[in-house]
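Q: Could you fold this chain for me?
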Amino acid sequence: MAPETPRWLLSRGRKRAAGRIVRQMLLDNGRTGEQASAAVKELLGGSGAEEDDGKTAASDGRHSMRRSLGLLARSPRLLLRYGIIGIDWFLVAAIYYGISMGAKNLPGSIFVTSCLIGIVDLPSYLIMHLAADRLGRKTTFIGAIGGSGLALVGLAIANHLAKDLTWLVIALSLLGKMLNSTAFAIIYIWTGELYATNMRSSGLSTSSMCARFGTLFAPLLGNIVSSCPTCTTTRCQLSVVCCGCRKSQTCLAIRRPQRDFIPGEFGPLVSYAVFAGSSFLAAAISFAVPETRGVAIPDSVEDLINTNRLEAVEAEEAGAAGADLLAKEEKT
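A: Sure. Below is the predicted structure, expressed as structure tokens.
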């Protein structure tokens, strides 16, 4: 029911289809037919409605995609950038679902904690909306995922040394989940702006695939250990599984043995430490990815490569100018 994006259509050589959509947009916004026609003609570079429709346009689109992939494969800088983004998606998704699935390990009612773990996603989206244009996509992501790591470090310490402070353990878990959700929300925008128009949908789908691989590890990370309310030697998940110790009503009712991946009281510590380390890793490697706030989105990989070359030349010229200035100061 929604029309295709005119910019994407232009990048695929489908000028006539793009012109029709733009013309309708102008008419819906109160422009006259003559004004709309003139604007469409200017948009298409004076080519009017000329276009190779049908099989020719589809062939040009496939050729453009193959050419873009070839250029991308020959650009180590872009490959590194997109590789880092893929790792970020993997780590953020693993942490997000790992914390959610580990909610039953928190003190208190499993129903209340699970509900709170889900509710904290709402303020995270508000934080992302307010910070994205003020701080930038890169700063927001690094700050959110790094802050999530700090909260998880505090959670690991509190869960190990101050288990009686139930409110502190739950608060740190919710804070870590909220900041991770903020990073998960902003990475969608950041990734979309890093890819050229003719590869944006493919880039986002590939990144989302990396996130799905991350979710495969979430159950393992979120279920490294879970303590029985009466026994501490092996795992007894309340009303779910039983270690067979027969020391509680739950254990008497359900006798399905299951051992911990890491037995003992250090299980939760290892789990939260893995989450925190993954958060810090995602924040550290993201410094190599450029900011996209206020930057013109390239229409093709060629434009993206040319922009990178221009940035490299400008940086080289700035470095040379700084060296010359330093040399002059030393002479004087």
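A (continued): Residues 226-259 form one domain.
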